[in-house]
Fold:
Amino acid sequence: MTWERVTHKQPCEICGKPDWCTRSELGACCMRVQTDRPMKNGGWLHSVSKSERFPHTTRIPAKNVKSLESGTVLDFDQMLSTWRKLGLDHVQWFASQLGLKEKSLSMLGACAWESTLAIPMYDENGGTIGIRLRNKAGHKYAVKGSHQGIFVPYGAFGKMPMKPCLVCEGPTDTAAAIQAGYFALGRPACLGQEKMLRQMLRNLGIKEIVLCADMDEPGKRGANKLIFALDGVRVRRLRFPGKDLREWLEGMRPELAHEMIRFAIRQTN
Structure:
């Protein structure tokens, strides 16, 4: 059996790095992400056969997402549908590592195979315009050809959203808010998609939000920019201990998390 080195063009399926790791017909030998199958070279074996890899998943860093050539249209919904039919759903593993429940990630349309979590991103009209990827090492990517969009809970465009509406930073904070029993939308980062979010709120008939931005300096700057952009929308700023919402709520029962958020919202009045 021949083991091939990973490269910049074909990085490791597990950690996303272009060096040190190898692959073969047996699977991937990752030198960074552990499993219960250690290899003699100091790495760990991951069962990732060719049939198990998602098709069309050329991955690039999420912050550098760009569209394909002009006129090229990708059917992201079809991609997600195809991947779910593979029967290799590992959302539960990612949920446990992130301190979340599988249902909260699934509410965002998430699916996964052994090494990567995929979450769809939507435009202001509810169209799927991209797919965010996250591998087991925590590196964040997107399917090539994606546009940055909003993370939206399933069925939001088919019914009136619950009140209040929480706007979070990133898909995992959004999932944490959903897990606590709230309707939540998520931006992919602390900056960007201000106009898209403003139009999405109008389309959903939402005139008031609770902004749950990260408490670090980039999060605060991004929150201020978003507040300025959301003219005509009442914005209440949620403040909480910890860097982000998921970190604050991690380990709490959903009922307690709900009450903690409700109490924090009251302090914004």
The chain has eight helices and 13 strands. Residues 1-50 form one domain. The mean pLDDT is 83. The chain has three domains: 1-50, 59-143, 156-266.
